[in-house]
Design brief:
single chain, 404 residues, alpha/beta, Rossmann fold, formyl-coa transferase, domain 3, 2 domains, 39% helix, elongated
């Protein structure tokens, strides 16, 4: 078993903040990469202030924002003022020892600092450079700041999300940010693999809008093939009926018949064989056409018993179903517990912080939390000393000059 991590020996210079970039670099850190998070002195990542909730220190003071904790484990934090010449020189020194550079500044910021892709390749041949922006580095929107909410709106997501007769709704999480982080991580891993064979670096141009449009997947395909605008179906599915939430006698639960075989099995189990032979309900295509009737008759049926009874029946006959859990129920769920999706990690000021574990389950090379989400600048002196050879006096000078 490899406990060092699959990316052991890979160094990532992380110039990102907020969510898409930090989520990407956290995934790389989970896989074993040495992630050096560069933050502005005295301020740090914006999300350090995005609370409450915050952790508490041992003496009762405000600690770290939960939002920051969510995307910054397995990183070392270094403060560096990139608006100073000395700060940029230190960054260049780190880049010379890096394998991957990830940034989410506005388009062209690195180039203004004299760190365009060609210069970066001269500093560190084979460097993989990943740029994350709202709209990409080309096109009429390339200079716009990107926000998840706006991208969910522009990318089509909100047009298909929410009640059929209600207002457009965004996802309850920053889905465009998180997806971009995951897509960026995939691209970086592919670039690292290619570099092993060719020795060449890569320039990766990731955009929140691109990621959101890509996430529309089969909904976008439905439109491109048919030319018909997709509507909103609440929790329903545009291509499968039934596939949504239903109200049992006591509460809602999730229920689906993903194919006609499951539909027939369910109808038999609930003693409604006539639904199998009815031309309106016999096939998925027919049920799509008669969606409202199917939903109405199932709601009438499910209202006669508690959700737990229906879910037990569905489990018995192999029909997809599930409870609609709140977060407390999620982390109390036996499967979530079995998969160890909560991790309590030692922390320098909070004592311990609870984190959502990495979903990357790789038993042969498991992910580990080597570093809790760092305090601002926690590793500045360590990095300057071990990687760049600065002694204590030089570090003090840099701090007095506002460089770190």
């Amino acid at each position: 078993m490899n406990t060092a991590g699959l990316l052991d020996g890979v160094r990532v210079i992380d110039l990102t903040r907020v969510l898409a970039g930090p989520y990407c670099t956290m995934m790389l850190g989970d896989l074993g990469a040495d992630v050096i998070k560069i933050e502005a002195p005295g301020l740090g990542d914006d999300t350090r202030q995005w609370g409450p909730p915050f952790t508490q220190t041992a003496d009762g003071r405000r600690g770290e924002a939960a939002y920051f904790l969510a995307a910054n484990r397995n990183k070392r934090s270094m403060t560096l003022n990139l608006k100073t010449d000395k700060g940029l020189e230190i960054l260049k020194g780190l880049i010379r020892q890096g394998d991957v550079l990830v940034e989410n500044f506005r388009t062209g910021t690195l180039a203004k600092w004299g760190l365009d892709y060609e210069t970066l390749q001269q500093l560190r041949p084979g460097l993989i450079v990943c740029t994350i922006t709202g709209y990409g580095t080309t096109g009429p929107y390339k200079d716009r700041a990107g926000y998840d909410f706006m991208v969910q709106a522009m990318g089509g997501f909100m047009s298909v999300t929410g009640p059929a007769a209600g207002e457009p709704v965004r996802a309850g999480i920053a889905i465009a940010d998180l997806a971009t982080g995951m897509f960026a991580c995939n691209a970086i891993l592919a670039a690292l693999f290619a570099r092993e064979r060719t020795g060449q670096g890569q320039l990766i141009d990731m955009a929140l809008l691109d990621s959101q449009v890509a996430l529309m997947s089969y909904v976008a395909s439905n439109y491109l093939v048919s030319g018909e605008l997709p509507g909103r179906y609440g929790n329903g599915h545009p291509n499968i009926v039934p596939y949504q939430e239903f109200r049992a006698r006591d509460q809602y639960f999730a229920f689906a018949c993903g194919n006609d075989g499951q539909w027939r099995k369910f109808c038999t189990a609930v003693h409604h064989p006539e639904w199998i032979d009815d031309d309106r309900f016999a096939t998925n295509a027919a049920r799509l056409t008669h969606r409202a009737e199917v939903i109405e008759m199932l709601n009438t049926l499910f209202a006669t018993r508690d959700a737990a009874d229906w879910m037990a029946l569905c489990d018995e006959i192999g029909i997809p179903n599930g409870p609609i859990n709140n977060m407390a129920q999620v982390f109390a769920h036996e499967q979530v517990i079995a998969r160890q999706l909560r991790q309590d990690v030692p922390h320098p000021t909070a004592g311990s912080v609870p984190l959502v574990a990495s979903p990357l389950q790789i038993p042969t090379s498991p992910t580990t939390v080597r570093y809790p989400p760092p305090l601002l600048g926690e590793h500045t002196e360590e990095i300057l000393g071990s990687l760049l050879g600065y002694d204590a006096t030089a570090v003090t000078t840099l701090r007095n000059e506002g460089v770190i």
